[in-house]
Each structure stands twice: as structure tokens, then as C-alpha cells.
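Long-time lurker. I teach an intro course on protein structure, and each term I like to show students one example going from raw sequence to a predicted 3D structure in C-alpha cell notation. This year I'd like something fresh instead of my usual example. Would anyone be willing to generate the C-alpha cells for the chain below so I can use it in lecture? Attribution to the forum is fine with me.
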Amino acid sequence: MNKEKPLRKVAIFDIDGTIFRSSLLIELVEVFIEKGVFPVSVRTDYEKEKVQWLDRKGDYEAYIMAVVGVFMKNIKGVPYAKFLEASELVVMRYRHRTYNFTETLIADLKKEGYFLLAISRSPKGTLDFFCKDIGFDKTYGSFYETDDGGCFTGKVIDEHFIADKATVLQRAVEKEGLTLEGSVGVGDTEGDISFLELVGRPICFNPNRKLWEHAKEKGWEVIVERKDVVYELNKKIKRDYGN
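-- Reply from a regular --
Happy to contribute to a lecture. Here you go:
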């Protein structure tokens, strides 16, 4: 009698600010500027939001959305080949600019046979390069349309889909033959709450205020890494993650 192959447990990670100690999109835009693909003047379109965030007078979301606006405005007409070159350079420079906690967690989960899933709103091409070396099995990221000549049109394909990380997770579970039983999820902002609600072990890593407040209400695991020290902030947490 043939036995059905057991379903693999899944671990889902946000990438920017959770594994990578920056944003892949921000670094990609900076490389485009450095290489003359984008004009230097585009920095003025997000510099104000960047300074306000650094000075704790604004939030990170406003900063990253300003960078997204610059990318969308200037990517039209750029050959895909140049995008790949810039993405490879970003990963070559910053592959190891990561958090110790999440890198160690990933290594442990791989040993346990988990299916590693990355979901990010960063460009998928850049995300693929970054996540491959870390050992992810599947990545979902923003996919930008190209024309017949291999140049970007400035449009995002299925933007609504990648914005709903819970739906992405559920699709991956069905498509890859996975199970949410004993699953692990790691996120850092309120945008990750939707998939953290679905997993067996939700981890809020370096959370922003909105995610932190939600985590306190739910009793979720909260981890903060600063310099070379990892802190656990929520102590009243059930440690049996087998269900």
C-alpha cells in the first residue's frame, strides 16, 4: 500500500527589516542612481521623508512609499538586463547585512526540514538573488511588467495579490503541498499581521509600534535584536508550537 507523502511544515518570512537590515528596494534605487540609470536628482523626492524618519519625526512607511514612487516613476524604459545587473550588485554588497537571530532561525528550520517561504513587496528579481543564497525554497515579490523589447513599462503585475500576504501564504501552501500545522512566521510591521494570524508560531521581530501593540494583545513572541544582543520582550508565551 502506498503511503501519502507527509506535508512539509512551512516557515514564512518578511525580508526587509526582518532578515535584511535595510530595504532591497532602497538599495536598488541607490545603485541605479550610482550607475546613472536614475538621475541623482530623484533623491530629492524621498530625502525629506528619509530625514524625518531618521529624526523620529516621521514614519518608515512614508519613507519607503516615497522610494517606491521614485522607482515606479523612473523604471519605465529601463532594460531588464540593467535591473538584473543592479540587483546582483545589491546582493553582492549587502548579502551579509542581516540579523543574527533570523539567520540562525532559518538555519535551524532548514535542518528540521521546513519549507522556507519569503514574501516581500521588494522587486522579485532582486528578492530571488538575495534569498537564494540564504536557502529559501520559494519567493514571492513585486513583479514589474516588461515590453516585447525587454524594458520595463512602469506597471506592476498583480499588485493587489502581493499586498495580501495571507492570501500568498495560503496559495503557497496549496501549490507546494505544505501544512500550517507547526508553522512559523516572522514579520516586523502591521502589514505582516495577516499571515502571522495563520501560523502556529508568530514571531514579531523588531516590530514597529502597531505590530508591537497587536503582539501584546495576542501574547505573541516578540524579539528585538540590537547590536550583538537579542532580547525577548514577551515572556508570557506558550512554548508548545507543535500544533
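Some talking points for your students: Residues 236-243 have pLDDT under 50 and may be disordered. The domain at 8-232 is CATH 3.40.50.1000 (Rossmann fold).
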